[in-house]
Every structure is written in C-alpha cells, then in structure tokens.
Design brief:
11 helices; five-stranded antiparallel beta sheet; 420 residues; 3 domains; q64v53_bacfr protein fold
Length: 420
C-alpha cells in the first residue's frame, strides 16, 4: 500500500507519503518538489503496521492533506533516496574499509582523512609532496573505479616535475601579472648579504684553514704560539675574562671585532663585516693544524678587502639576471596563454624564485626554484606547464598537489600506510 498526500495554503506547499510493505512502513515528508526526510519503522506484525499507517493517514487528512498524484520524476526521487541511503551506509561503515583493498598491492603510501560527507585520500609522491583526491561519499562508488588511474597520472606527472610543489587554488591575493622582487627590500638585502659573505668565508676557510688537515689529538686551540706572531694588515688584541685569556681579537684598520678566535667555543671563528655577523666554522672537537691557522691569518686582511667589491658585483649581476629571468618567463609562457605571477626572495631561502601559473580558473600550479636551478631549467618551463595540462586532461578525477612545508601543523603529522 502506498499513498501520496499534499497540503497547500498561502504560505506553504508540503507533501507527505507513506508506503507499507509487510510489517514495515516508510514515510517521507517535506516541501513539495524536495527530496524530503524519510523514516522507516518496523512492527511486530503486518496488521500492526497497517493499523499504524491508517492512523497516520487519518491524522494528516484531518489537518488538510489531500490525496494527489505523485509529481513527475517520483522514480528519480526514489533513486535519490536510495543514493542517500547508500551514502549513509558508506559513512557508517567507514570509507576507510573500502580504500585498503583498493590500494592493496599498488605500493602507494597513503593517508585517509575521513569526513561525514566526503573524505580526502592522500598519496605520497616523495618526502615533500603528496597527491590529494577528494572523495564525496555520494559518488564514491562511481569514483572508486577512476581512482587508481587518477593517482597514476598525477604521480607520474609530479615525478617528472620535481620543481612543482602545488596544484590547487590561487595561493596569493595580488593580481595576475605581478612581479614581487622581495629580495631587493632592505631587510632581505641584509639577509642575502649575510648568506653571500658566509659562502665566501667558507670558501676562504677551505683554501687556508682546512687545507692542512687537523691536529691529531687537540680538543681545544692553543693560542700561545699563534698569538705571538704578526700578520699583515691585522692588529692583534686580547680579551680577558676573570684573569683567564678567553679569546684573541684582531682588528683591521683600527676597527675592532672583525676577527675573533675564541678558545672557549672549541675554535669557533666569527667576524663582522659591514654590520653583518657571520659564523664561519665550528669544528666540534677537531682543531685545524697550526699551518692552517697561519695561512688563514696571513691572508685574512687581503681576503677581507675583497668582500664589499664582491657583494657589489653580485648585486649588479643579479639585477641583470633578473631582467633575463623576466624576459624568459614571458617568452616561455606566452604560447600557453596562461596568467602567471612570480616572486623573488633573498638567499636565506633554499628556493628563492616562486612561480605561479593559472592553468584554468581555480587551478593554479606553483613551482619553486633556487636561482641556479631556474637559470638552468628556464627553457623548459613552457614544456613543464604543458606537461601539467596534459595530466589534468588525462586524469578522470580532479586532484591536488600539496607540499607538506606549506602547513606543517596540518600535514606534518600525517601517518602513511602501504597495503602489501
């Protein structure tokens, strides 16, 4: 037995439907044209179910509900209810019970974040990146057939493009076509100079201090011999602490603090140049040989004199390289017709050039390069963008690429599993 009733007045239009089968009846109700809410109740006997159904029908009729023809598409509505029930069943059983057998034997390391209406499946690409596929429970069974192909296409593309760190929504607020040269801001220049000078200092140490090996048994530096020597361009001064000699402080052209050799820090040298403090080396119990110290100190004043000219030359050349980088990006991305924007950062960052390309509305890729990497890879950027476009076309499902570093609080604690 099945009965469909409707109620209409100036302010509302509602329906109420009941279907009784055996000892069970199911009612569905809501606004006319909507899917409505469904409830099922089971009774001890068929007669009890029928009696309760008649009671409910009389109650509705007394409130003004009248029998009507079910609207066109009622079968579709029924299918919608069945679909909703299937979604509910998936949610109750847990999508986590379906994913493991699906990925068994693939070798994929995965993590599943389950939700009430959808779940996010993440598959690791490498130590930094992973693929994310959103799986709405309403369409999961249909999507599951396409999931493995999506993962395979996305993973192959990402492995081909090691500089690709993100595929997803626009990660910045400024307009497309913008160029953000943060590297040339005042504070960024200070940091870049520090990194640049530290690299030169390390190279100088390798040529002098470390070129003669280490003392076979010393664990702290013996200054007594070296401090008696004079070195060109260096004015020797000594620090004392509680009557015990702690360090030797050398000055160049009367400026103190340019070079400090500290005994209490296991031969750690640092010096200050142009307001930038640089830690050169810390040997952790290994002391360079006497010959290395002498070579280091003999050439230090001359080495110091080359630092500012080297930095000035680097800045001039880097400005020229930035112009070439901008021209190359324009040339490489013009055929694709894609919007793009890029950022240039200081040398503190492992990856200083950040390129964003809009593949289509709502889908943006981000690629990170160090400056040497970009200069080497620049002629392939157009092809790389097309590689992403090809993968997006081949993938039956949409996917994201995410770098763990973008949000370590959210992604850093993920646990990866492999189904053998």
């Amino acid at each position: 037995m099945r009965l469909y009733l409707e109620y209409h007045d100036d302010s509302s239009s509602k329906f109420w439907e009941i279907e009784q089968t055996g000892a069970t009846h199911t009612i569905r109700y809501g606004k006319t044209g909507a899917l409505g809410t469904q409830k099922t109740k089971t009774f001890p006997t068929e007669e009890a179910a029928q009696k309760d159904a008649q009671r409910l029908i009389k109650s509705k009729q007394s409130k003004g509900y009248v029998e009507a023809e079910p609207p066109a598409g009622a079968e579709e509505t029924d299918r919608g209810i069945a679909k909703r029930e299937k979604v509910k069943a998936i949610a109750e059983a847990g999508i986590g019970a379906v994913i493991p057998p699906l990925l068994k034997g693939t070798g994929y390391a995965y993590s599943l974040q389950e939700g009430s209406k959808s779940s996010a499946l993440r598959v690791r690409i490498d130590d930094r990146r992973f693929i994310e596929v959103n799986l709405p429970h309403a369409t999961f069974m249909k999507r599951s057939e396409k999931l493995l192909l999506t993962i395979a296409v996305a993973k192959a593309m990402a492995e081909d493009l090691p500089y690709l760190t993100a595929l997803g929504r626009k990660p910045f607020s400024w307009d497309w076509g913008s160029y953000h040269p943060a590297k040339w801001e005042e504070f960024a220049m200070i940091f870049s100079k520090e990194v640049f000078l530290e690299r030169l200092a390390m190279e100088y140490c390798e040529r002098t201090l470390l070129a003669h090996g280490f003392e076979p048994s010393a664990s702290t530096m013996d200054y007594q011999d070296i401090v008696q020597l004079d070195f060109p361009g260096l004015e020797r001064r000594q620090w004392e602490c509680s009557g015990i000699e702690q360090a030797v402080n050398y000055a160049i052209e009367g400026a103190e603090g340019l070079l400090k050799l500290r005994q209490d820090w296991v031969a750690k040298e640092s010096y200050i140049h142009g307001g930038v403090n640089i830690d050169i080396l810390e040997f952790k119990g290994k002391i360079p040989a006497r010959e290395g110290w002498i070579a280091f100190l003999e050439g230090f004043a001359e080495f110091h004199s080359t630092l500012q000219p080297a930095w000035d030359s680097y800045c001039t050349e880097e400005e020229q390289r930035d112009e070439v980088r901008m021209a190359t990006l324009k040339e490489q991305l013009a055929p694709s017709g894609c919007n793009y924007s890029f950022e240039l950062h200081d040398l503190r960052h492992d990856k200083q050039l950040v390129l964003h390309v809009e593949m289509k509305p709502g889908k943006v890729i981000t690629m990170l390069y160090s400056y040497p990497e970009f200069d080497q890879e620049a002629q392939n950027i157009g092809a790389n963008v097309e590689r992403v476009r090809k993968a997006m076309g081949e993938s039956p499902l949409q996917f994201k690429i995410i770098d763990v570093a973008t949000d370590r609080t959210k992604y850093g604690s993920m646990v990866w599993k492999i189904e053998e």
